[in-house]
Amino acid sequence: MPREICPTCQRPLKVCYCSALVHIPNRIKVLIIQHPLEQKHPFNTGRMAHLCLENSELIVAERLSDEELAQLLKPRSALLYPSLSWLPGVEQMEPGTPQAEGLEQLVVIDATWRKSKKMLHLHPALQQLPRVSFEGELSSNYQIRHSSLPNSLSTLESIVMAMQELEPEHNFQTLLQPFEKMISLQVASKI
Fold it and tell me: What total of structural domains would you count in the chain?
């Protein structure tokens, strides 16, 4: 007999985190472009962010046509992605600057590192966007899923950090509540 699945978080009912979901009004739209394999992953934090942010959109696709991408991107968009040597040098979006205050949309790729690099290669328009990235030591609490790269954060943790800097008038830290609940339920279910 198949397990019952929550229609909202799409997790088995015994590890459903929906009671911890929060709703945060955000001025800057968060556009999450999610790899199709990530959509089916049980620890899908991109979906979690979409469920909590009032001004967000979740698109599941590895590749979008230039026309589709042009329709999705707002005139003043930035990409949340690390500054890596193979990416073109673009403007770094600094919090508190007029550019950051005029930002309309934060584009987030929700995928493994390998898949996210492929998605960026497939979308040169995303590579050209101003970039939001973080410097220094980063610490993830994602105990149930690990990255192949050091100093990595989950999609949700990255969104929290970026939005907290870009819209400091809101408390985006509360987005971590369903994340923490998902982790604790998963750890408890293994005991």
Answer: 1
Q: Is 145 part of a structural domain of the chain?
A: no
User: Is residue 16 a part of any domain in this protein?
Assistant: no
Cα→Cα distances 85→3, 31, 89, 149, Å: 45, 24, 8, 15
- pLDDT tens by residue, 149-167: 556 788 999 999 999 999 9
User: What single string gives the DSSP state of each residue in 123-158?
Assistant: -HHHHTS-EE---S------TTS--SSTT---HHHH
pTM for the structure as a whole = 0.90
Which residue is associated with the tokens 């026309």?
A: 67
- pLDDT tens sequence across 2-17: 789 999 999 999 999 9
Residue at 81: amino acid letter: Y
Reported as half-sphere exposure (CB side, CA atoms, 13 A), residue 63 has a value of: 4
